[in-house]
Amino acid sequence: MPVTVLLVDDEPLVCTGLRALLEAQPDIEVVGEAADGAAVIPLVRRLRPDVVAMDVRMPLMNGIEATRAVLRTVENPPKIIVVTTFEQDEYVYEALRAGADGFLLKRARPAEIVHAVRLVAEGESLLFPASVRQLAAEYGESGGNRAARAVLERARLTEREAEVLRLMARGLSNAEIAGRLVVGVETVKSHVSAVLAKFGARDRTQAVITAYESGFVAPG
To answer: Could you give phi then psi for residue 83, rounded to 5 degrees?
Structure first.
């Protein structure tokens, strides 16, 4: 079965370019387009895409509000990639906090865009550690977010879970963490799942943001 994608952008040329790029892949199918976040929920419910590639800045409903709405109201929601022109954008950080699985620059190379769609469809977060660190440092109230600190305190992470979270925040994959800690990949997956469950996080991105905002990991 191909990965199905819904494109959401108020720039027709962007949608046209993305559709042509993605539909050239044998394992990806674009099932629909929308020009604003306000149209996303009915389309998601009707088309059931695996991935939504959504512009972060739109006139009626931006990508932050649309992400929140999809995750709040749609059962078994799709993965969401927010698409942006500027990576150091408060809108991007707020979309990640709202539950987006990652972000992608409009100027990204075609191979990066295709890889991003496949990655999030497989359940991995699209996480750029350097960019997320910078976003957290600028917009994330590092160490000063009471809610994030409360989540960390309630989680009571084990020493190994804490170690895994630090490596997640550096952008390491499960395989890379396994190599660093000299354990099996399945063991790492178990620790990652435990961290997400204790944080009540949708994915790795949400856990990493909590790690920064609670002060557990320093953005610098």
So the answer is: -110, 135
At 208, list the tokens: 């990493």
Give per-10-residue mean pLDDT for the chain (220 aa): 93 86 94 92 95 90 92 92 80 85 86 89 70 71 78 96 92 89 95 96 86 83
Question: What's the DSSP call for residue 37?
Answer: G
CA 136/CA 134 separation, integer angstroms: 5
pTM above 0.90, yes or no: no
Reading the block at residue 184, the tokens are 């099996």
Q: Do residues 69 and 40 lie in contact, with contact meaning Cβ atoms separated by under 8 Å?
A: yes
Distances (CA, A) of 74 to 43, 68, 79: 11, 10, 12
Judged on CB neighbours under 10 Å (0-12, 13-18, 19+), 73 is exposed
CA distance readout (Å), 103 to 1, 59, 97, 113, 160: 24, 19, 12, 10, 28
For 135, residues 6+ apart whose C-beta sits below 8 A from its C-beta are 87, 88, 92, 93, 96
- Phi then psi for residue 126, to 5 deg, are -90, 90
Distance (Å, rounded) from C-alpha 60 to C-alpha 40?
12
